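Hey, why these numbers?
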Amino acid sequence: MIPFGDLKREYDELSSEIDPAIKGVCQKGWFVLGENVDAFESAFAAYIGGGVNGVAVGSGTEALHLSLVAAGVEHGDYVITVPNTAVPTVSAITFAGAVPIFVDVDETSLNIDPTLLRETAAREKARLGKRLKAVVPVHLYGQSADMGPIKDVAEEFGLKVVEDACQAHGAEYKGTKAGSIGDYAAFSFYPSKNLGAYGDGGMVLTRDRSEAAKLKMLRNYGQEKRYHHRIKGFNSRLDEVQAAVLLVKLKRLDMWNKRRREIAELYGRLISNPVVTKPSEMPYGRGVDHLYVIRHKERDALQACLKAGGVDTLIHYPMPVHMQPAYADLGLGKGEFPVAEKAAGEILSLPMFPQLRDDEVEKVAELINAFER
């Protein structure tokens, strides 16, 4: 079986460094918000660049949630995002007490369509006024959204920009790394990410030091110093074991991203089935191929064919958020966002991880090319 991902292969590559790093944390006996967290916050912020400050939190979802709270989003406010994201993006909006407003996506990139964003922002600003607070562009599959026009719209309508960079560790937009462009950025370190922990973890990045200080209080019950709570906060703290693991892995992130791009290029050369649409890198950015997502009108049959041939695949994501039962209260239905809805029925994520071998990529491509429906 060719796995969709294989973290055991990754561990085998890293065990000689991972094991002593974890043991070191256990020997010191300090497990939450310690020296490893401090070091990882600094190292990851330096990696992204652009003068950002890092605040490590419990998950990527919490990174989005706390970013929105820091941005002033309150109960009854509204936040714009896309419907073809993972549900956690929208969960973070509802955690903040806000209501999501969706904008359809670009047909090629499957990221937020800036033209539709402007139309939506103009309409909703006229309706909602100051209650329209922010926009959350998602850098889907490891490719940056078109941040220039997105920031222009945000400035025009007084919106904060919170980048959902949970799939975009190291991705670039016009030579600048994703996560350093908006007012805030949220990263996830879920194990399967380009940079993943051995459990949950996340980080908020912001260029504003005062906002970083606020976020450090928000993640720790609003505590300014021990037992002194300046603001109402939450519990969202990265533990020392995860930070130690991430410090080891961060040194390999560029190498792993390079390998992901090599795999994507090999898929691109080998897949020749004329009715399969392969992903395109947008001219404004450089992706990191968190996922390699093809499209086919008979996606389910193709997925079954690959499974029969010993290839594991996934769908990211089979149902847009506005069509999920959990969000039926929004009153949105089929046909509201045609590009996202059409894509959801066609997309298929192929195996993609740095330890994937060339011969495995070749086998996947052979099966796809032989599929005739």
Summary: The longest helix spans residues 7-28. The longest strand covers residues 53-57. The chain has a mean pLDDT of 98.
